[in-house]
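Hey L., structure's done. Input below.
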Amino acid sequence: MIYDEIFTYNSAKSLVIYDPNMAFFDLIAHFWENIFPNASDGMLRVLPAIFSILSIPVVFLLGKEIENNKDISTKIGLLSALLVSLNAFHINYAQFYRSYSLVFLLTSLSTLLLIMAIKNTLEKSKSFNYW
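Output:
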């Protein structure tokens, strides 16, 4: 796994995109490496950790958006956020200098926005504000 992180570091440093699936992360990592030019290995891994931490409130909102009952929706959101924050795979992959935590954040966010758009369409009698 260490070779993958070295590959990501070199790809972000030179902005030569070898893996199109990681192009967005490489672009963000390029700016991160320019802000912290002599960063240690631990400082580079802060970027995916930030994405991982930002995904917890997004998952809370996603869990809260699923249910219409306000009391139950808050409990679902809190339970979802708790399960994500304690998940061993989520914690493990948040420590790699790869795009795993960014993919999880963006997938959760897009799912949240999709559910909000569907609910808004159903409530507003077919007005496509989010679409």
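The radius of gyration is 18 Å. Residues 38 and 44 are 10 Å apart (CA to CA).

-- N.
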